[in-house]
């Protein structure tokens, strides 16, 4: 009976050692997983920042293009007005010479 108790205690001790080893291995693997997740989080944050920068640049380009478009429209109106004035002047000159 005492031998059986000793045998079961030794078996329990061996199982405890195995459990301890497995727990350490799981801890190491979890550490690697946590490092990988942390690295992926950093990559995602960097990508987000890059996307935000690209978006901001695109908005600035659009604003610049809109401003350029407005300037072009204004210039076109000025040229049309100037053309009309020149036409009027030519007609006046022709009338005076006739």
TrEMBL record:
Gene3D superfamilies documented for this protein: Methyl-accepting chemotaxis protein
Taxonomic superkingdom: Bacteria
UniProt xrefs under SUPFAM superfamilies: Methyl-accepting chemotaxis protein (MCP) signaling domain
Protein name: Methyl-accepting chemotaxis protein
Organism annotation: Salipaludibacillus neizhouensis
């Amino acid at each position: 009976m005492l031998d059986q108790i000793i045998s079961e205690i030794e078996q329990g001790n061996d199982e405890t050692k195995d459990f301890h080893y497995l727990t350490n291995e799981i801890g190491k693997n979890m550490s690697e997983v946590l490092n990988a997740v942390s690295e992926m989080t950093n990559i995602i944050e960097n990508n987000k920042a890059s996307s935000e920068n690209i978006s901001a640049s695109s908005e600035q380009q659009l604003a610049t293009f809109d401003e350029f478009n407005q300037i072009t429209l204004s210039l076109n109106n000025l040229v049309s007005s100037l053309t009309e004035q020149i036409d009027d002047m030519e007609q006046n000159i022709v009338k005076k010479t006739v």
